[in-house]
Write a structure and sequence with these properties.
43% helix, 9 strands, Phosphorylase Kinase, domain 1, alpha+beta, 268 residues
Length: 268
């Protein structure tokens, strides 16, 4: 009997390590004969790892007091003649962890369809560098459609993003550092739109500049570094804007590029 054809659902289940052994072997044989598909699957796995690295620390954060209070709430129902407190059989930590794992796993599988920007609910969970790193991990490996509007339409891209953010935004010029504009896209932020510009060097290495206009209350203008999984991020606040430059390159090299971006923004 001929084996069943490998579907997109099989590939996503393979990425999620959710296939039976026999089917996993068939998928691996298929990927061995299809290098393009194998590369796509590797990219999805890398995205999942980056997202897990970015969000797993949330599991270690203290449980909010209002949720902890539920554990000691008065009993509300009788079972087998005995009254049991709410959530008696499951710890709140486990439930919170399960919800987060389900969210991250579902988000990682959804990435494969490359149709929508990151979910707003995820953005609310993370500060600027983490949101920027996740957005970088989602879109930078994409071969077919890494941006919504390409560099060949830069004027239209600038006009569109400036209109959506409500103020002029323009990508920096990084040609002297070996990076050329690929294009950009609009993303959802915590409470409004965010712009992402993507750049690429001759080797195909990509970096992204995440521009958020949601930082007016934040007076901390320091130039800072963060590492989210395999993604390095330099970020800073300038007026009402928050900027985050993300890439999977050496910290020192990224610092030089971030400094050039910062200087261009300061003198625009």
């Amino acid at each position: 009997m001929n084996p069943l054809p490998i579907t997109e659902a099989d590939l996503q289940a393979y990425v999620d390590a959710a296939l039976p052994d026999a089917r996993r072997s068939e998928v691996e044989d298929y990927l061995a004969a299809q290098p393009d598909e194998a590369g796509r699957v590797r990219a999805y796995m890398n995205q999942m790892q980056t997202i897990r690295s970015a969000f797993n620390p949330i599991l270690d954060e203290p449980l909010p007091a209002n949720l902890s209070a539920l554990a000691s709430a008065p009993p509300t129902a009788a079972v087998d003649g005995r009254r049991r407190p709410f959530l008696a059989r499951w710890s709140l930590q486990r439930i919170a962890a399960g919800l987060l794992i389900a969210l991250v796993s579902g988000f990682a599988g959804w990435l494969a369809h490359d149709r929508y920007p990151p979910a707003e609910s995820l953005a609310r969970m993370a500060p600027l560098p983490r949101r920027a790193a996740v957005a970088h991990a989602v879109f930078s490996p994409d071969v077919r459609r890494p941006v919504e509007v390409g560099a060949e339409q830069e004027d239209q891209l600038v006009a569109w993003l400036s209109k959506r953010l409500g103020t002029p935004v323009r990508p920096p010029k990084l040609g002297a550092l070996g990076y050329e504009l690929v294009g950009g896209r609009l993303l959802p932020g915590n409470v409004g739109p965010v712009a992402q510009f993507m750049f690429q060097d001759a080797s195909g290495q990509r970096l992204t500049l995440y521009v958020s206009s949601e930082n007016t209350p934040n007076q901390d203008t320091a130039f800072r570094f963060a590492q989210e999984g395999q993604v390095n991020v330099f970020y800073w606040i300038d007026g009402k804007f928050g900027y985050a430059l993300s890439a999977g390159i050496d910290k020192g090299k990224l610092a030089r590029i971030a400094t050039a971006v910062y200087e261009q923004i300061e003198h625009k």
